[in-house]
Amino acid sequence: MAERKDKQKVIGEPMTDEQIKVFLDFPPEDGENADFHVLLKAYRALRAEDFERFVAFFQEQGRDVRATDPEGRTLLEIVRGHGKSEPFVAILERAGG
């Protein structure tokens, strides 16, 4: 007889503040803007609800939500071109991005 799992796997559990704040400390590549780098990393890895909390922590540190990549684009400009990015666009717009 096969053993049954007691708990189902939960996907997308809310992250703790500490887990989200880890994204604030990712070092950039040479020549890359540090603020843009962490924004991009967080955007790629976090769900919209967690990204919104990240942006609040980011701004509390006085960091620049309008930081640009080496081609001069802000994260908001990049995200606008992605499918299903509406929640992220709204978060960045509210933050002044």
Automatic annotation (TrEMBL):
Top-level taxon of origin: Bacteria
InterPro entries: PA4642-like
Protein name per its UniProtKB record: PA4642 family protein
Organism, as annotated: Alloalcanivorax marinus
